[in-house]
């Protein structure tokens, strides 16, 4: 069975500080993709970053980086220099190869950036 | 059109009525998906289609049907709506290469209330 766990229902961070949002996953498939999405209060789902299970380096996209620890099955999202506009729900998702391109989502973390 | 569009934006529906949620993408993506998002449960896959003419069941398919007559359109039908189908519905697509671990891009969502 595929499973994604986000254990932090809510997080607070001071503006300009860095924050780490946790994500662990469980799959028996050796090949998979890991994704993070942002959902602001307006409701749309915005793709942030992707990490492949065979990628040697952690993915980075601007202020977003993915701390990928394969042995621990974790794929934490790090947001550096938080901005007020980063306040949103953040979802981690996994796509194992043997399921085609089906995504499995975590329950999300609500991030609030404090001025 | 740019990306994925969904219609209607929101709908109030009487229980027992039939409803079709529309989804259209102009990115020529092969694969399309329908998710429902419920508070505390994240996004759950209802149905998917890896290519025109094919469909498959996701995690929560009961009470829903889909069709994929062409590449661009992927309608979701509730044959006889029930209150437990009150949710926010997201359509997504991935591609253009049919394969695995492709990033999924989401439509703006449809908010459905079944009374």
Share of β-strand residues of chain B: over 45%
Number of helices of chain A: 0
Helix content of chain A: under 10%
The number of strands of chain B is 11
What is the succession of H and E elements of chain B? EEEEEEEEEEE
Q: Structural class, from secondary structure content of chain B?
A: mainly beta
- Rg over alpha carbons of chain A: 14 Å
Q: How many β-strand runs of chain A?
A: 12
C-alpha geometry of chain B: globular
What oligomeric assembly is this protein in? heterodimer
Mean pLDDT, all residues of chain B: 91
Report the largest inter-chain contact: A-B, 25 and 27 residues
List the uncertain runs of chain B.
none
Topology, element by element:
The complex is a heterodimer of chains A (115) and B (115).
Chain A: E1 3-5, E2 10-14, E3 19-21, E4 24-26, E5 32-39, E6 46-52, E7 60-61, E8 64-69, E9 74-79, E10 88-96, E11 104-105, E12 109-114
Parallel strand pairs in A: 2-12
Antiparallel strand pairs in A: 1-4, 3-9, 5-6, 5-10, 7-8, 8-9, 10-11, 10-12
Chain B: E1 4-7, E2 10-13, E3 19-25, E4 31-38, E5 42-49, E6 56-57, E7 64-66, E8 76-78, E9 87-94, E10 105-106, E11 110-114
Parallel strand pairs in B: 2-11
Antiparallel strand pairs in B: 1-3, 3-8, 4-5, 4-9, 5-6, 7-8, 9-10, 9-11
